[in-house]
Design a protein that fits this description.
Blueprint lengths: L2 E8 L3 H12 L5 E5 L7 H4 L31 H14 L6 E3 L3 E7 L4 E6 L2 E10 L21 E4 L13 E5 L3 H10 L5 E5 L6 E2 L8 H9 L3 H21 L1 H18 L3 H7 L11 E2 L3 H5 L4 E4 L3 E5 L2 E4 L4 E3 L2 E4 L14 E2 L6 H5 L17 E3 L12 H22 L3 E4 L1 H15 L3 H4 L21 H7 L8 E4 L4 H4 L1
Parallel strand pairs: 1-2, 1-6, 2-3, 4-17, 6-18, 7-16, 8-9, 8-16, 9-12, 10-11
Antiparallel strand pairs: 4-5, 5-6, 13-14, 14-15, 19-20
Helix pairs in contact: 1-11, 6-7, 11-14
């Protein structure tokens, strides 16, 4: 039987959980969440690799309506974040709305009925509104390396860590040097026999101002009124101050001297220092922080290969420079399908064209949230909202305010259909692209995941998160085509 709901949310990570809580508070109760896994948590459920932790201050990594005053560190670890997410979901009774083990296969807009029809691994659903909350850090990206399929050893991605495989004494190739690798390499380096790190592009790594928060401090955060909010505001202000540099790259070129100083202090070998020194401006790629990454690369059992992997032949990994290394395991720290999100190939307009078909490799949305041609659909953590300095929670909550206002307006007016005006979406994206041109994201001299297959930056927000919150504060009805269908078919 087909089940109908007012709102269906796809994904039970921080976005989906936040959407449920926010809409419940607006009096919208007929909500169901489709979650393909048997647990909620999204990114923080999947990423369990050694050393996995937040790379923005913990005080910013929680919902403002459910602050966590008990973080044990300035930068919390994965397990603590996952526990916070699960606890918050339980406190707001989100679990009872989640259909676990239910994967979205295809969603089609039914124009005559003004409804979405969703085919899933557990049957058919219909909904007035669909919210895509799968996020950009969902599907692991594994390069197409010739010969990889015939490798006889163990192969896995950092976000699918195989904890049953004992790395002790093993010869391990790590492919990729992004945020995940910077965290897990120092954790596994002391136990493996050999670690061969394949670095296609050097990364700027700044010192991480992390520390344990003593129990009296944690207690004070919970007991003293306003203490937690004050810490959150302080850390937000510091990160926003850093964010100014993303629009003025000359500021970041000054700050990157801190990374250069750390590199000089922690890497003894001059040749290795040269290989680890980036040739682009700090902030062009994701900002990385670690106090242990460079020391791990000094170890005698660690070898840095400053090139990509060309091929795999049997148990031998061959780099682009032709060097061969025999290994027992290959671990990919190569990130995710950020701009080619798999869910975009599963959501279709009324003419049978998917989001992928519309985007043609360059994702676009209005305010990163709604897409022309896809009525009654919302994206969370969508295109053009990524920042290099702030928390995903900051972006998400700005969108949740807009989402709640939009659905409240639709209810009040009786709209059964609302769709972004194409010209409004085009004007917004032109404004974003013009502003991005002088930011470090576009002018920093690197190739990052912010740039899509067409060379367009479809990921970043070029302004402050304060401006983002302001733009998304109120629902702007004039940006939408709205209609009311009073036919008996819809009324039922």
């Amino acid at each position: 039987m087909t089940r109908h709901h007012e709102v269906i949310v796809v994904g039970a990570g921080i976005s989906g959980i936040g959407a449920v809580i926010r809409l419940q508070r607006r009096g919208i109760g007929d909500i169901v969440v489709l979650e393909k896994s048997d647990m909620l948590g999204g990114t923080w459920r999947d990423n369990t690799y050694p050393g996995c932790a937040c790379d923005v201050p913990s005080a910013l990594y929680s919902y403002s309506f459910a602050p966590n005053t008990g973080w044990s560190r300035l930068f919390a670890g994965q397990n603590e974040i996952r526990e916070y997410i699960e606890r918050t979901a339980a406190e707001h009774r989100v679990h009872q709305r989640v259909e676990f083990g239910t994967e979205l296969l295809r969603a089609d807009w039914d124009e005559p009925a003004h409804r979405w029809r969703l085919e899933t691994s557990k049957g058919t659903f219909t909904a007035n509104v669909v919210i895509a909350a799968a996020g950009p850090w969902n599907q692991p990206l594994i390069p197409d390396v010739p010969g990889l399929a015939t490798f006889p050893g163990k192969v896995f991605h950092s976000s699918r860590w195989d904890h049953d495989y004992d790395l002790t004494g093993k010869r391990v190739a790590v492919v990729g040097t992004g945020a995940s690798a910077v965290q897990f390499v120092p954790e596994i380096a002391p136990t493996v026999g050999e670690l061969h790190l394949y670095q296609r592009t050097a990364q700027w790594v700044l010192p991480k101002p992390d520390a344990l928060l003593p129990a009296p401090v944690r207690s004070a955060m919970g007991r003293i009124p306003g203490a937690s909010r004050a810490l959150r505001r302080t850390q937000y202000g510091l990160m926003e101050a850093l964010g100014v540099g993303f629009g003025k790259p000359w500021i970041l070129r000054i700050i990157q001297q801190i990374g250069r100083a750390q590199l000089r202090a922690q890497i003894r070998c001059r040749e290795l220092r040269r290989d680890l020194t980036p040739d682009y401006t700090l902030g062009c790629k994701r900002l990385l922080m670690s106090n242990t990454y460079y020391p791990a690369l000094n170890r005698s059992n660690v070898e840095v290969h400053a090139n990509a992997v060309r091929t795999v032949r049997g148990s031998v990994v061959i780099g682009a420079d032709g060097q061969e290394r025999r290994v027992d395991a290959i671990i990919f720290g190569t990130g995710f399908h950020i701009l080619d999100m798999p869910i975009a190939g599963r959501i279709f307009d009324g003419q049978g064209r998917s989001l992928d078909d519309h985007w043609k490799g360059s994702p676009q949305a209005y305010l990163g949230t709604t897409v022309a041609g896809f009525p009654n659909a919302f994206l969370l953590l969508g295109p053009s909202l990524g920042t290099g300095h702030s928390s995903a929670f900051m972006v998400l909550e700005a969108q949740l305010n807009y989402l709640a206002a939009a659905l409240t307006a639709a209810r009040a007016a009786g709209w059964t259909r609302m769709e972004t005006r194409p010209e409004v979406q085009a004007a917004f994206n032109a404004e974003v692209q013009e502003a991005l041109a002088t930011t470090v994201y576009n002018a920093g001299g690197c190739q990052s995941y912010s740039l899509d297959v067409n060379g367009r930056n479809s990921f970043n927000w070029p302004w402050s998160t304060g401006r983002m919150r302001e733009r998304l504060r109120e629902f702007d009805e004039s940006a939408y085509l709205t209609s009311v269908d009073t036919s008996e078919k819809v009324a039922q």
